[in-house]
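[step 3/7] inverse_fold.run input=structure_tokens len=157
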């Protein structure tokens, strides 16, 4: 057994699998947002819960904003799924999720928690996890298995 390689893998991971990890996360989160946005846009009454949340949060122009947010989710998620304009799509969805945290998710947090319990509950919010994934995808790029990678190769030759 090659102990050096085993220790190296245990401590540093395997960069040989990195592209597959990026692909898995990119497609998973992209599909999630594309499907979520599509259900809001193309299913009767789909924007109603978004509209109600926006009204409750006192966001201006709630009807237009509900369609805008749903469109950002659908288009951004679709782009991320195929790896086209991935970083701008991640930025748009990162902003979308940050606003969701600030306008809605924080209001669901229990009051009177200790700082560690509050942080635990905060990090448990799915929107916070999405923000972290988007930051990671912006920093890592869409990976070699993407239209962006192919385009960059063609445009930068």
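[step 3/7] decode complete -> sequence:
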């Amino acid at each position: 057994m090659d102990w050096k390689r085993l220790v190296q893998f245990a401590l540093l991971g395997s960069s040989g699998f990195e592209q597959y990890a990026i692909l898995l996360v990119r497609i998973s989160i992209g599909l999630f947002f594309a499907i979520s946005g599509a259900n809001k846009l193309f299913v009767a009454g789909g924007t109603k819960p978004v509209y109600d949340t926006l009204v409750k949060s006192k966001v201006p122009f709630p009807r237009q904003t509900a369609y805008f947010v749903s469109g950002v989710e659908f288009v951004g998620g679709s782009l991320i799924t195929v790896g086209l304009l991935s970083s701008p799509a991640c930025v748009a969805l990162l902003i979308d999720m940050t606003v969701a945290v600030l306008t809605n998710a924080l209001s669901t947090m229990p009051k009177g928690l200790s700082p560690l319990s509050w942080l635990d509950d905060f990090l448990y919010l799915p929107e916070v996890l999405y923000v972290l994934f988007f930051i990671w995808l912006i920093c890592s790029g869409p990976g070699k298995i993407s239209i962006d990678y192919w385009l960059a190769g063609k445009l930068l030759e």
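[step 4/7] annotate
The chain has a mean pLDDT of 94.
The longest helix spans residues 18-42.
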